[in-house]
Design goal:
Blueprint lengths: L12 E2 L18 H19 L9 E5 L6 H17 L5 E7 L2 H8 L5 H5 L3 E6 L6 E3 L4 E3 L6 E6 L8 E6 L2 E7 L11 E5 L9 H10 L4 E4 L1 H13 L3 E11 L2 H5 L18 E2 H9 L4 E6 L5 E9 L6 H12 L3 H8 L5 H10 L4 H13 L6 H17 L9 H11 L3 H15 L3 H12 L4 H14 L4 H18 L10 E2 L2 E5 L5 H7 L3 H7 L7 H12 L4 E8 L3 E11 L2 E8 L8 H15 L4 E7 L3 H9 L3 E2 L11 E6 L7 H13 L12
Parallel strand pairs: 2-3, 2-7, 3-4, 7-12, 12-13, 20-21
Antiparallel strand pairs: 1-9, 4-5, 5-6, 8-9, 8-11, 9-10, 12-15, 14-15, 16-17, 17-18, 18-19, 19-20, 21-23, 22-23
């Protein structure tokens, strides 16, 4: 790289003319929930500071996003703002403006489905700068914003790297402008020449020149002059009142500049990262206007977090700005990214997800290891991981190009017993990226595990249309076809009456054994249901075969749309009389699912001509007794002898529960189904 003064070339090309500062250059900086929440807290505190002054509440506080990009950072910030305002119980009028350089880009952003609800509520608008970059045309509101009634908040996430900088050096106390050598530019080998500043290559602004003469004599600097001009325009929109929040790869200290951090690149290729942003120069520019600034960079190659509070009408309160800086300092995006590279252990990854406020980018780095070595599936791990995955998914914003994350997320969710979350991931993938065999197969598997066998069959048809010989789809379809055929021959099953809301009953089969064993792990379930201990899948399947063998007996799996297998119901009938029982698994008790499942079974029994239904519960099982009462069962005035002496019996039918005929019917039914009941002498 040449660094000697030279005569001016015939055609001068400045650094800003190179394609270094493309709109894609900042994509190496990824948004994080942690930073979004820190910014949201700072923004809300800033709004509160000015709201106290009694500003007109009919006009919103505008939040200008200078680089909406694909919308991922905006999505995180919007949700963090909503949460912060709700947490503090504040009713502050505000509107996020996605600022674009042309109307086409604004329309493309407005069409994104993730922003429709926000836009309909008036919380998001899509704006386009005019040619002079000093006014915004708001798409939804149909107005041109020249001056805001309130101070404005400016967010610039990975934005300043996309704005061209100019190249200078301080040589013996004098500024020299850096230009590209030669008539043509070969980006594979860039040479620079240095020349005295003149009208064509004017010197830096006075404040910056004085600063770098004093601190960086003999050093090369890149000055973000376009960024300074854009910020000045935004400040005018807020009548000299603004809060800037920025995050970018850059330099923050003159020490870094003296060590060569701002030397221009010797080569460039498409997709390469843009040069770092000179936040030191940005600070100098703003401080000459009395702006209070703060910045933080954990290491020389890390992200620079930058804040600037401007108020031309009054001095910025140091204590207030200090409190705001403390909030911003809590963001630790670089720390989390560094630790994620070491998080191959599921427990470590889970801890990091919590610390990062459930950052999808962090999970992307860990998910391969998690799928290779999944978390151990005990009760606590399932619960904690399920919660973490749902929170992380809520922060996820789909990328323009498929990266496989939705599919991987669905695999992990399905492994952890979260078919509802897996379904969300796969449906999003199919909607965004089109029909894909693997995604369609996995979605069919989700449906088959959560009460949607018929829906699964349709999805498998779509998968096989994409890839007719897909082995997994062919195998699952054969299994489901056999299952559906058996259900059609089932003596008691009525599919049209087996579904209500999120619950579906389906005939209990071998395919439910593993899920049933896990949900049956609480010994109290067997005790309260008068069922035997079941300690292995083999035992569960053997019990199922015995349970289903009598033609008048039928068991049904209770399948939840989002949770999968949640329990079971069973009936044993003799003529128009039947006995039912049900239980709900360890993870789902107390959610009202037992009552819903029993109601579905009762409806099927009545449709098959069973008009008198009996059941029982232990006298101290208050939850079950409450559920039975809500279903319309009446407690029967009878007492049985051992081994049934601790049971309370219930009746649902057309007669009174204490009728002697019903007592006789109960005894006859119990005898017929192989569980004879002996009543105490005074209750016969």
């Amino acid at each position: 790289m040449a660094a000697q003064p030279a005569s001016a070339p015939a055609r001068r090309r400045r650094l800003s003319s190179l394609p270094l500062f493309s709109g894609d250059a900042g994509n190496q900086v990824v948004p994080s929930p942690d930073l979004a929440h820190a910014w949201a807290e700072a923004i809300v505190d800033y709004w509160r500071h000015y709201q106290v002054e009694g500003k007109d509440r009919e006009h919103p506080f505008y939040l200008l996003d200078l680089q909406p990009r694909d919308g991922a950072a905006a999505w995180l910030l919007l949700n963090a703002l909503k949460a912060r305002l709700m947490q503090q119980g504040l009713q502050i009028p505000w509107c996020y403006l996605a600022c674009h350089d042309n109307a086409a880009a604004a329309e493309q952003c407005a069409a994104h489905p993730y922003f429709r609800q926000w836009s309909a509520q008036g919380l998001v608008d899509f704006a386009c700068w005019n040619d002079r970059h000093d006014a915004l045309s708001l798409r939804n509101r149909g107005v041109t914003l020249v001056r805001s009634e309130h101070p404005v908040v400016i967010v610039a996430f990975a934005h300043f790297q996309t704005l061209a900088s100019e190249l200078f050096c301080i040589h013996q106390g004098q500024p020299m402008a850096g230009v590209l050598a030669g008539e043509t530019i070969d980006t594979a080998h860039l040479d620079y020449e240095w020349q005295t500043c003149d009208d064509e290559t004017p010197p830096p602004p006075a404040a910056m020149l004085a600063h770098y003469r004093r601190h960086c004599n003999g050093s090369v600097v890149q000055l973000p002059l376009l960024a300074c001009a854009r910020l000045d325009a935004c400040d005018r929109l807020g009548n000299g009142r603004s809060l800037l929040l920025a995050a970018d790869r850059g330099v923050s200290e003159v020490r870094q500049i003296r060590l060569g951090a701002l030397y221009p690149p010797a080569t460039w290729s498409p997709g390469a990262a843009a040069p770092p942003v000179n936040f030191d120069a940005l600070r100098v520019h703003q401080q000459q206007h009395g702006v209070a600034t703060w910045q933080r960079q954990l290491d020389d190659d890390g992200l620079v977090l930058y804040a600037a509070w401007r108020d031309d009408a009054q001095a910025v309160p140091p204590q207030v700005f200090g409190a705001l800086a403390t909030l911003l300092a809590q963001a630790a995006a670089d720390d989390v990214a560094q630790l994620a590279r070491m998080a191959h252990d599921p427990a470590a990854c889970l801890s990091l997800l919590r610390l990062s406020r459930y950052d999808p980018q962090l999970l992307k780095q860990c998910i391969g290891s998690l799928l290779d070595k999944p978390p151990a599936c005990n009760e606590g791990v399932r619960r904690d991981w399920g919660d973490a995955l749902r929170r992380t998914w809520n922060n996820y914003f789909p990328s323009a190009s498929q990266d496989g994350f939705c599919y991987q997320m669905a695999l992990l969710a399905l492994y952890l017993g979260e078919p509802g979350l897996a379904r969300q991931c796969l449906r999003l993938s199919l909607a965004w990226y089109g029909e894909q065999t693997a995604e369609l197969y996995l979605l069919a598997l989700c449906e088959s595990l959560s009460g949607g066998v018929a829906e699964a069959d349709v999805l498998l048809g779509r998968a096989l249309a994409c890839e007719p010989l897909h082995a997994q789809s062919l195998a699952l379809r054969a299994e489901l076809t056999a299952r559906l055929a058996a259900w059609r021959e089932h003596a008691w099953y009525l599919p049209q009456r087996a579904r209500s809301g999120t619950l579906t009953l389906e005939p209990l089969g071998r395919e439910h054994a593993a899920a049933m064993l896990y949900q049956y792990r609480d010994p109290q379930i067997g005790i309260m249901s008068c069922l035997p201990p079941l300690e292995s899948i083999v035992q569960v399947r053997q019990w199922m075969e015995r349970e289903q063998r009598p033609p008048a007996r039928a068991g049904f799996a209770v399948m939840h749309r989002d949770l999968g297998f949640v329990g079971m119901t069973s009936m044993h009938c003799e003529g128009a009389t039947g006995y039912l029982y049900f239980w709900i698994g360890s993870d789902f008790q107390g959610c009202g699912l037992g009552r819903q499942a029993a109601a579905l079974l009762i409806d099927m029994m009545r449709a098959r001509g069973v008009n008198e239904i009996f059941t029982s519960a232990y006298r101290d099982n208050l939850r079950s007794i409450h559920t039975l009462t809500r279903l319309g069962f009446q407690a029967m005035a009878l007492r049985a002898l051992a081994p049934d002496d601790e049971l309370q019996f219930f009746y649902l039918g057309r007669q009174a529960a204490d009728d002697s005929a019903q007592r006789a019917a109960l005894c006859a039914l119990c005898l017929a189904i192989g569980s004879p009941l002996t009543l105490a002498a005074d209750h016969q």
